Recover the amino acids of this structure.
């Protein structure tokens, strides 16, 4: 009786402004549990305003691998002929690009490195998609492994030397109507590929795959699908008739994700104000853990100025 003690109460506000909680004391007091209202004031640590100037067309380095099994060639030649020209045209519109098409076990690009200045690039891709007389089919149904082999030969003296550029997006695209048969998981191969980019966010794996397990041998997209999901790549169903008409989406969807900006401080998502050339953006997404802001609308072009205003959250441990 008549004694006092000091007790610290930790208050972690989730919004700004005043808030009230209830403090409960359990003891041998004959009154039982004693309560008292506690008032706290939530305040943002500070505010921030950041401005970014968008560079030109983003650089992207692409590796396309194609399952060379009989079922693939029988069912997909028309779609390749239909889809690859539009894919190249979409790349010309949105990116500074170069690519290799890998169809043999050596991992070397069939026809070498194709760039945005290569004459008749679309024709080269179509003609080399299902070449005859390939000496090594050992990895034709292990396309993530084949991609890794191709990447291992991008260094000095390798047959794919010059494909990878520092700071460029690495985009691996696989076309297969069966599961990945290397015996390793999609996560394993993603880990291997990450060693070739300066930032894991610059790696994307996309696929034209048997999503419904109703073509090829029915084994589905196992392995490939995991890699696509882990890297935020794009997907098409290879069993759909005329998937080639949608192949441009592989380029546009992945490259659209490059219009993203990393904020210097953790932002309260509810206070974000995003301006593109002084005009409020109508569609953007903020990922709190990564402090990453992606803008979908309006489209971001070379020289556009992006301003982000926000309140800074305190970081509580």
């Amino acid at each position: 009786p008549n004694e006092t003690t000091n007790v610290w109460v930790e208050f972690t506000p989730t919004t700004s402004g005043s808030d009230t909680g209830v403090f409960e004391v359990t003891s041998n007091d004959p009154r039982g549990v004693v309560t008292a209202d506690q008032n706290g004031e939530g305040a943002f640590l500070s505010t921030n305003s950041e401005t970014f100037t968008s560079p030109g067309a983003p650089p992207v380095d692409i590796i396309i691998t194609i399952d060379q099994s009989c079922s693939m060639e029988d069912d997909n030649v028309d779609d390749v002929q239909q889809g690859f020209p539009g894919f190249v045209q979409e790349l010309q519109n949105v990116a500074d690009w170069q690519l290799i098409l890998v169809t043999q076990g050596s991992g070397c690009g069939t026809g070498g490195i194709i760039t945005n200045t290569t004459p008749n690039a679309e024709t080269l891709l179509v003609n080399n998609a299902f070449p005859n007389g390939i000496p090594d089919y050992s990895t034709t149904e292990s396309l993530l492994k084949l991609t890794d082999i191709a990447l291992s030969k991008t260094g000095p003296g390798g047959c794919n030397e010059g494909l990878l550029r520092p700071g460029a997006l690495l985009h691996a695209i696989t076309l297969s109507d069966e599961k990945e048969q290397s015996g390793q998981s999609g996560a394993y191969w993603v880990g291997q590929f990450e060693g070739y980019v300066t930032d894991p966010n610059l790696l994307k794996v996309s696929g034209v795959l048997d999503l419904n397990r109703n073509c090829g041998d029915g084994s589905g997209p196992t392995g490939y699908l995991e890699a696509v999901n882990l890297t935020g790549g794009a997907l098409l169903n290879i069993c759909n008739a005329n998937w080639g008409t949608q192949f441009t989406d592989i380029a546009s969807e992945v490259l659209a994700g490059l219009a993203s900006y990393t904020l210097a401080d953790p932002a309260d998502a509810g206070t974000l104000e995003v301006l593109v050339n002084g005009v409020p953006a109508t569609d953007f997404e903020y990922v709190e853990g990564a402090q990453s802001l992606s803008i979908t609308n309006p489209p971001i072009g070379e020289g556009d100025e992006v301003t982000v205003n926000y309140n800074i959250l305190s970081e509580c441990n």
In short: Helices lie at 70-94, 121-128, 143-152, 186-194, 224-231, 248-256. Residues 263 and 310 are 10 Å apart (CA to CA).
